[in-house]
């Protein structure tokens, strides 16, 4: 009788509890030996590297030490590891891309987070355009409400989406019933693909110039770092809205701050750069036209449980020799988050 394959769970006990992942352990144990880090906190790098040398499946997540070096020379012929299931979104910080090209299977729960961030984005757009955040702030301070002329409804607006990512696609889909015009900048998307999402492809500068709302959903790649600068922010309409639920490093924050300080348009920032969270003395906090959120667009009870569900189901699918539902295609590695 052959030994059962090892499934090593390389995340903290807290994250196991938050994602509800433990409910899958009995099903996995029917065909595998499940090992887990007992804590406290996150597993140490040496333990994870050692486990990667003997486990067939590894479950990773926020706080898992990088496997880039331990798996740098990964090959089917020399390693027992066949599948890495990530309970979060981005896996680029965790794994070497060449391992996927050589046949390592990778799955992630990006769709779970995309659903949460897309919903947050819609809420942010509605709240900012109707001045809900500013009205609440002024009401609490016993100050006059914003002028009604600054409160705008969504129907009839032009919404610019930067990046047809998993989040960007959902935002476009969920905006369609609102009777808006959607502009899209994504150099990897054809006009025919954009039309399927009800969007018109345009240049990045034209998107900033023509949109009432600019929503950033691009991944971090060499091409996207610093993609929005002074030229783009100065081109935005007076009264427009900029929403960033992607990554702070995509934006020149000095240029954004300078434009926001003129009061021409408003912004909601879920992410910032070069520091996150911002220091208490950041000039962004002094801006009435800028709402700052501590990187929580992807956080919800439902999202956390979906992360565990997607990961748990893909481990089970592998053990039962079925297709993975959330596999990371090697050909998407370069352009994904």
Describe the protein.
It is elongated, with a radius of gyration of 22 Å. Strands 8-7-6-9-10-11-12 form a 7-stranded parallel beta sheet, with helices on both faces. Strands 2-1-3-4-5 form a 5-stranded parallel beta sheet, covered by helices on one side. The chain has 2 domains: 6-108 and 301-335, NAD(P)-binding Rossmann-like Domain (Rossmann fold); 114-292, Rossmann fold, CATH 3.40.50. It is of the alpha/beta class and 337 residues long. The chain is 32% helix and 14% strand. The protein starts with 5 loop residues before the first strand and ends in an 18-residue tail after the last helix. The model has no long low-confidence stretch (mean pLDDT 96).
Outline:
This protein is α/β, with parallel strands linked by helices.
SSE diagram, text form:
Elements: E1 6-9, H1 13-19, H2 25-28, E2 33-36, H3 45-52, E3 57-60, E4 83-86, H4 97-101, E5 105-108, H5 110-129, H6 132-140, E6 158-162, H7 166-175, E7 181-185, H8 191-196, E8 199-201, H9 204-210, E9 213-216, H10 230-235, E10 241-244, H11 253-260, E11 266-269, E12 290-292, H12 301-319
Parallel strand pairs: 1-2, 1-3, 3-4, 4-5, 6-7, 6-9, 7-8, 9-10, 10-11, 11-12
Helix pairs in contact: 5-7, 5-12
Fraction of residues in H or I helices: 25-40%
CATH architecture of the largest domain: 3-Layer(aba) Sandwich
Strand order of the largest sheet: 8-7-6-9-10-11-12
Oligomer: single chain
C-alpha termini separation: 42 Å
How many helices in DSSP terms? 12
Element-by-element helix/strand order: EHHEHEEHEHHEHEHEHEHEHEEH
- Number of separate domains: 2
Q: Into which percentage range does the β-strand content fall?
A: 5-15%
Query: Which stretches are low in confidence, meaning pLDDT under 50 for 5 or more residues running?
Result: none
Biggest β-sheet, characterized? 7 strands, parallel
Helix/strand class:
alpha/beta
Q: Globular, elongated, flat, extended or rod-shaped: what is the shape?
A: elongated
């Amino acid at each position: 009788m052959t030994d059962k394959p090892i499934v090593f769970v390389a995340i903290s006990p807290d994250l196991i509890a938050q994602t509800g992942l433990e409910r899958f352990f009995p099903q996995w144990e029917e065909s595998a030996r499940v090992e887990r880090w007992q804590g406290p906190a996150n597993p140490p790098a040496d333990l994870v590297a050692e486990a990667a040398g003997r486990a067939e499946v590894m479950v990773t997540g926020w706080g898992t030490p990088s496997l880039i070096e331990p798996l740098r020379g990964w090959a089917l012929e020399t390693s027992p590891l066949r599948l890495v299931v990530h309970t979060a979104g981005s896996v680029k910080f965790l794994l070497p891309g060449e391992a996927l090209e050589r046949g390592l299977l990778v799955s992630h729960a990006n769709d779970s987070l995309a659903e949460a961030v897309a919903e947050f984005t819609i809420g942010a757009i509605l709240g900012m355009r109707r001045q809900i955040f500013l009205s609440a702030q002024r009401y609490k301070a016993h100050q006059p409400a914003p002028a009604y002329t600054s409160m705008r409804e969504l129907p009839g607006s032009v919404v610019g989406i930067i990046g047809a990512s998993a989040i960007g696609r959902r935002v476009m889909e969920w905006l369609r019933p609102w009777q808006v015009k959607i502009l899209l900048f994504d150099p990897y998307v054809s006009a025919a693909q954009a039309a399927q999402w009800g969007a018109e492809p345009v240049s990045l500068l034209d998107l900033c110039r023509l949109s009432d709302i600019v929503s950033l959903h691009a991944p971090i790649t060499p091409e996207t770092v610093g993609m929005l600068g002074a030229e783009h922010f100065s081109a935005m309409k007076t009264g427009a809205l900029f929403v960033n639920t992607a990554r702070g490093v995509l934006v020149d924050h000095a240029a954004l701050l300078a434009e926001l300080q003129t009061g021409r348009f408003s912004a909601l920032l879920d992410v910032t750069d070069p520091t996150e969270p911002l220091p208490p003395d950041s000039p962004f906090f002094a801006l009435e036209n800028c709402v700052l959120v501590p990187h929580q667009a992807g956080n919800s009870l439902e999202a956390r449980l979906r992360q565990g569900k997607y990961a748990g189901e893909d481990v089970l699918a592998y053990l039962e020799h079925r297709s993975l539902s959330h596999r990371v295609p090697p050909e998407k590695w370069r352009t994904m988050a």
